[in-house]
Amino acid sequence: MLKGKVAIVTGSTSGIGLGIAAALAAEGCSVMLNGFGEARAIEALRTRLAQEHGVDVLYSPADMAKPPQIRDLVAETIRQFGHVDILVNNAGIQHVAKVVDFPEERWDQVIAINLSAAFHATKSVLPVMLSRKWGRVINIASAHGLVASGEKAAYVAAKHGLIGLTKVVAIETANHGVTCNAICPGWVLTPLVQKQIEDRAAAQGIPVQTARDALLREKQPMLDFTSPEQIGALAVFLCSEAARTITGAALSIDGGWIAQ
Ligand code: NAD
Fold this sequence. Notes:
The chain is an alpha/beta fold and 260 residues long. It has helices at residues 15-26, 39-53, 67-81, 104-132, 153-173, 191-204, 208-219, 228-238, and strands at residues 6-9, 30-34, 57-60, 86-89, 135-140, 178-185, 250-253. Helix 4 links the parallel strand 4 (86-89) and strand 5.
């Protein structure tokens, strides 16, 4: 379905971003991977995706906290592939602490990577998408883009902001073949969430499995994690012709989290 299309997926060396990159590649899309990690593991991932799906896959180590590197990531993708059709703003980090204890530099980092990076990347890709009259911008927000939890001030502020940015981009591009939507996952068992589970288990002196069950029960009526593959399938749907008029939406995939 996406043969001939080119996607940038930020933060795609792990977790949800990797699930999305694999799902796009499986549809024939060329992919620019991005994110941190061990060089050999990333290279193995890049070749595996390319071989499994018969598509071109490249990698950029751009740091999403640094706007000049974000602009370079987009410019490099255009240099290598000729254009960009799909941008998935996925890179994200978390910090858990009460506002009174929240380290200022962590606030700045979370806002830079989870929110400002999406602005810089979108600003850089839109001219190409508009000139080609087709584009899909998909922002990976969160249930925390729609409702809050304690001890996550920067993350909740960034994700609410990301949904605001999604709506503005959707309005500005509405009649130019471009859509912009946010995906709002509940719990997905990735390294980002595994760390929160282990931190809770350590803090409360309980087994990791117990902490994992408690984490789900606290927020989701459905006591199960969404998988990165399921998020990938939703991203692919948003790139389809069937989703042509879905724009400015915040799509929950959260086991009923925000239904309560
Ligand atoms: P993850 O930690 O598995 O992956 C994060 C990715 O971002 C990695 O590839 C990492 O290398 C990359 N990254 C981090 N900082 C970066 C930077 N400065 N520059 C470039 N890349 C950077 O996390 P995940 O759970 O897959 O999260 C992906 C996105 O999904 C995040 O935006 C997160 O907020 C969102 N999300 C996750 C969940 C969940 O339950 N896991 C729920 C809702 C939303």
